[in-house]
Design a protein that fits this description.
Bound molecules: 2-acetamido-2-deoxy-beta-D-glucopyranose
Largest sheet: 6 strands, mixed, barrel
Family: Belongs to the peptidase A1 family.
Shape: globular
InterPro entries: Aspartic_peptidase_A1, Aspartic_peptidase_AS, Pepsin-like_plant, PEPTIDASE_A1, Peptidase_aspartic_dom_sf, Plant_Aspart_Prot_A1, TAXi_C, TAXi_N
Helix content: 10-25%
Strand content: 25-35%
Number of domains: 2
Distance between the termini: 21 Å
GO biological process, one term: proteolysis
GO molecular function: aspartic-type endopeptidase activity
Protein name: Peptidase A1 domain-containing protein
CATH topology of the largest domain: Cathepsin D, subunit A, domain 1
Number of strands: 30
C-alpha cells in the first residue's frame, strides 16, 4: 500500500535544504499533504521526487553494434586517461595554484544525458549526468570561451531568479579547488582531468526537472550552479553538466532527498531509460526479471577523491571459480590511486592490472577458441569465433564481483561482446594502471540505487529496456 506521501503532486516548489526551515516545511505540508503533518521533519525529504529520461549519447544514432562498441571504448579510454592525470596531479607536491587546482576527477566526455531547465522563465536544455563530479554548470552568455552547444547560452540578465553568490557565502566555501573572489563575487574554476574545464561565477538559480509529457514537474529554488563563461572540452552535444557526486555542491546533495537510481538499458541497443530521484528512487518497486534479491554494499571514501562512489571489492569469480587475486589489488593507496569506483560516465569497466590478468588467463583456459589481437576492436582479450556453419558453441559462466556484503552477478552479455557476423568474442573490460572503475556496460539491466544518506549502494537485476 502506498502512503499518502509517496504520491508527489504535479508541481512541487521547494527551496533547497527546505527541511531545515520549519516555515517552509509546514507550508509545504499544509498545501500538499495535510494528513501527514505529524510526520517528523526528517521524513519530508523522502516525500519529494521526480524521474527524468536518461538518454545514452549514442541513442537514436544509426551506428552498428561494432561502431557503438568502438565509440564506447574510445570514450572510456579518454576518461581513464583523465583519471590518471587527476590522480597524478592530486599527489604532486603543490607548487602553484594551477597545479593545486587540477584536483577534479573525470573527463567531460559524457555517457548519459538528462533534460532540465534553468531560470525564470525556465530555459530547457540537455546536460551530461555525471556521478564522478559535483558541480552543476552550464555555459553562460556573454561567453569568453565556450564550446558549441545546441541551445543558446544561458543569459542571466533574462532570468528573474539568478543571484550571483558573494565570496563569503557558505556555498562559495564549498567549491573545490577553492574559489576566488572577483569584485566580491564567487568565481570558480573546475577541471576535469586533462582537457576539460569550466570557469565562471557561482550563482543561485531556480531549476526545473521533469514536466515533459505527463511526468512530474519539480522546481527547486536557490540551487548553486556554475555559470561558466570560460569552458573547454567535449559536452557530447549538450549544454552543460549536472554533478551527482558525493560532495556538497552536487544536485543530489543540494536537493536534500539524497538518493537516486537508474536502470541502464542494453548497452549496444541503447534506448531511453530512467533516472529516479528522491521518493522515486526505490528498488522495492522494481519489476525484477530474475527474482534475485536486492543487494547492498557500503560506499567507502577516498580522501583524495571524495566526490566519487568508491566500493569495497573483495574478489572476483568466473562461474564457481574464485580468481586468485591479492585483495591489495583493490585497495585505495596512500597516494589516492587504486580503489574501486562505480561510475555513470565510464562506458566499460577497467580492472586493476593484476586482477585483469587473472581474469584474462581464466577466460583463455575456459573458452575453446583461438585468442586474437587481429580484430577491429581495441580490446585486449578477443577470440575468433568461426561464423556458421562451423560455429562452436561457447558456454560462458557469470562473472561475479564480490563486494562487501553483496555479490554483483554479471551475465555473459554484461562482460562479453559477442559478434557472430564478424566472428568475434571479446571481453569488454580493460586493464588499468590507476585502479578499478565499474562502467556502464557492466551495469546494463541492473537497477542501481545510490543512497547517499545511508552511504549505501543497492542493486537488483531488472529488465531496464522495458521501463
Ligand atoms: C498523458 O495523460 C493523458 C491522459 O491520462 C493520456 O491520454 C496521454 O497519452 C498521456 N501522455 C503521455 C505522453 O504519456
Ligand atoms: C542562495 O541559496 C541559499 C540556499 O541554498 C541561501 O541561503 C542564500 O541566501 C542564497 N543566496 C543568494 C545570494 O540568493
Ligand atoms: C546535436 O543535437 C541537435 C538537437 O538534438 C541535433 O539536431 C544535432 O544534429 C546534434 N549534433 C550533433 C553533432 O550530433
Ligand atoms: C524496501 O522496503 C523495506 C521495507 O519497506 C525497507 O526496509 C528497505 O529499506 C527498502 N529497500 C530499499 C532498497 O529501498
Ligand atoms: C514485469 O515484467 C514483465 C516482463 O518481464 C511484464 O510482462 C509484466 O507486465 C511486468 N509487470 C509489471 C507490474 O510491470
Ligand atoms: C593482445 O595485445 C595485448 C596488449 O598488447 C596483450 O596484453 C594481449 O596479451 C594480446 N593478446 C593476444 C591474444 O595476443
Ligand atoms: C568449415 O569447416 C569446413 C571443414 O573443416 C571447411 O572446409 C570450411 O572452409 C569451413 N568454413 C568456414 C566458413 O570456416
Ligand atoms: C557471494 O557469493 C559467495 C560465493 O558464491 C558466497 O559465499 C557469499 O555468501 C555470497 N555473498 C552474498 C552476500 O550473497
Amino acid at each position: 500500500m502506498e502512503s499518502p506521501c509517496s504520491q508527489p503532486p504535479s508541481l512541487v516548489e521547494y527551496p533547497t535544504r527546505y527541511c531545515s526551515k520549519m516555515a517552509n516545511f509546514v507550508l509545504l505540508l499544509t498545501l500538499l499533504v495535510p494528513a501527514m503533518s505529524l510526520l517528523p521533519v526528517a521524513h519530508c525529504n523522502d516525500n519529494v521526487g521526480f524521474h527524468l529520461t536518461l538518454t545514452h549519447v549514442d541513442a537514436g544514432s544509426s551506428y552498428t553494434k561494432l561502431q557503438l562498441l568502438n565509440r564506447a571504448v574510445h570514450r572510456s579510454k579518454a576518461r581513464v586517461a583523465a583519471l590518471q592525470a587527476v590522480a597524478a596531479a592530486t599527489v604532486a607536491p603543490v607548487v602553484d595554484p594551477i597545479t593545486a587546482a587540477r584536483i577534479l576527477v573525470t573527463a567531460s566526455t559524457g555517457e548519459y544525458l538528462i533534460d532540465l531547465a534553468i531560470g525564470t522563465p525556465p530555459m530547457y536544455y540537455t546536460a551530461i549526468m555525471d556521478t564522478g563530479s559535483d558541480l552543476i554548470w552550464t555555459q553562460c552568455a556573454p561567453c569568453l570561451f565556450c564550446t558549441e552547444q545546441p541551445t543558446p547560452y544561458f543569459d542571466a540578465k533574462r532570468s528573474a531568479t539568478y543571484r550571483a553568490l558573494p565570496c563569503r557565502s557558505p556555498r562559495c566555501g564549498q567549491v573545490s579547488p577553492p574559489a576566488s573572489c572577483f569584485q566580491k563575487v564567487c568565481v570558480y574554476q573546475y577541471y576535469y582531468g586533462d582537457t576539460a574545464s569550466t570557469a565562471g561565477v557561482l550563482a543561485n538559480e531556480t531549476f526545473t526537472f521533469g514536466g515533459s509529457g505527463n511526468s512530474t514537474k519539480v522546481r527547486a529554488t536557490n540551487v548553486a550552479f556554475g555559470c561558466g563563461s570560460i569552458n573547454a572540452g567535449d559536452l557530447a552535444n549538450s549544454s552543460g553538466m549536472v554533478g551527482f557526486g558525493r560532495g556538497p555542491l552536487s544536485l543530489v546533495s543540494q536537493l536534500g532527498p539524497s538518493r537516486f537510481s537508474y536502470c541502464l538499458s542494453s548497452y549496444l541497443a541503447p534506448r531511453p531509460t530512467r533516472l529516479y530521484f528522491g521518493v522515486f528512487a526505490n528498488l522495492n518497486s522494481t519489476n525484477t526479471s530474475s527474482g534475485s534479491p536486492v543487494q547492498s554494499t557500503p560506499f567507502v571514501v577516498n580522501p583524495a577523491l571524495p566526490s566519487m562512489y568508491y566500493l569495497s571489492l573483495q574478489g572476483i569469480s568466473l562461474g564457481t571459480k574464485r580468481l586468485s587475486i591479492d585483495p591489495i589489488a583493490f585497495a585505495i593507496n596512500d597516494d589516492g590511486t587504486g580503489g574501486v569506483v562505480i561510475d555513470s560516465g565510464t562506458s566499460m569497466t577497467w580492472l586493476q592490472q593484476d586482477a585483469y590478468e587473472a581474469l584474462q588467463s581464466e577466460l583463455m583456459s575456459i573458452i575453446p577458441l583461438l585468442a586474437t589481437n587481429d580484430t577491429d576492436i581495441s580490446l585486449d582479450t578477443c577470440f575468433t569465433w568461426p561464423p556458421p556453419p562451423n560455429m562452436t558453441t561457447v558456454t560462458l559462466p557469470n562473472l561475479v564481483f564480490h563486494l562487501d556484503g553483496a555479490n554483483m552477478t554479471l551475465p555473459p552479455e554484461n562482460y562479453m561482446y559477442m559478434d557472430t557476423t564478424m566472428g568475434y568474442l571479446c571481453l569488454v573490460i580493460g586493464p588499468s594502471a590507476v585502479g578499478t572503475i565499474i562502467g556502464n556496460y557492466q551495469q546494463q539491466n541492473l537497477h542501481i540505487l545510490y543512497d547517499n544518506a545511508n552511504s549505501l549502494l543497492s542493486f537488483v537485476s531488472a529488465p531496464c529496456d522495458i521501463i
